[in-house]
Each structure stands twice: as structure tokens, then as C-alpha cells.
Please model this.
Amino acid sequence: MFDAFYFYGRVRKYQGRYAEAVKLLERASQLQPEDFQAPAFLGGSYAGLGMRAEATAARRRAVKLIEQRLDLNPDDARAYNLGATTLAKLGNIPRALEFAQKSLAIEPDDPLVLYNVACLHALVDMREEALGYLERAVTNGFGHRESMANDPDLDSIRKTPWFQAIAQAMAAG
Model:
């Protein structure tokens, strides 16, 4: 049951249907309160609605759950990876970069890890690094063009010629 609410909520978030995403991701969080992913994406959905306090609360909850997860499983690349962007959105850039490096140390060639590291670098205005990681993500098999086109984390690099070249290479591939 959790998976249905979680994945449908993520789809609605990426479609910009934030009010629907909030309802779905809140329900996913209720169904599996130890899961760190739903509150992290819930934070982004609240932010999309301009609900800053709620976004911060959801992200803080996600970080707490990520830390608990990493205490039990210190090699969880997904926890580090999602933690990196969540920490950046909370303003903890040094720790966010540390989490990104740990996720890369565990899964250096995983396309989703590389994509999320690209998102982190775009968020903290490290554009060349962001584009380099994004290119590596696509080279390694990242193929979610809709996510790349609409993810607000990539707003700072989306209009660059390098980004456009990466997107065109995806379309041609």
C-alpha cells in the first residue's frame, strides 16, 4: 500500500500537481513512518505550494529518519544521496556535500546517484560540477527526460548550452 501512495505522490510532484502530491506523500508517511523518502519528497511538494514552514518540517523529519537509517545501514547510498539534497534545502551545504561524496563512494556509477549529485550541485550554484554529474548520469543510463526537464533542483543550469546538449543527446539516444 505504501508503494502506491509514495510512487503516485512522486509522479504528481514531478507533474507540478503539488496539492495532490502532498496528500499522497502524507499518506505514504503515515503508512510507513520509518521511511525517509516520502517526507523528503513531501518537503518539495510543500515548497511547490509555497508552504515554507511545512516544507522545512518535512525535510527536518526526513533528515532525522535518514540519520536513523544510516545508523543501521551505513552503506545506504540512497539515504546519503537523498540526504544530500535535503540538507542543502535546509541550508547545511557542507554536510550536504559530504553526504553526496559518501553516496558516490558507495555507488560511483549509479545513474540516479549521479543525477541527484548533479541536482545538489545545481542547488548550491556549483554549475560546472552539476553539469558534469548530469552528463555522467545520462551516459550511465539516466533516461528520465521529464524529470530532467521539470526538476526545480536543476533550474540554475537548465538554460545553459551544456544542459541543452545533454538533453539533445538523450532525445537522439
Observations:
- The chain has ten helices and no strands.
- The mean pLDDT is 95.
- The CA atoms of residues 82 and 104 lie 12 Å apart.
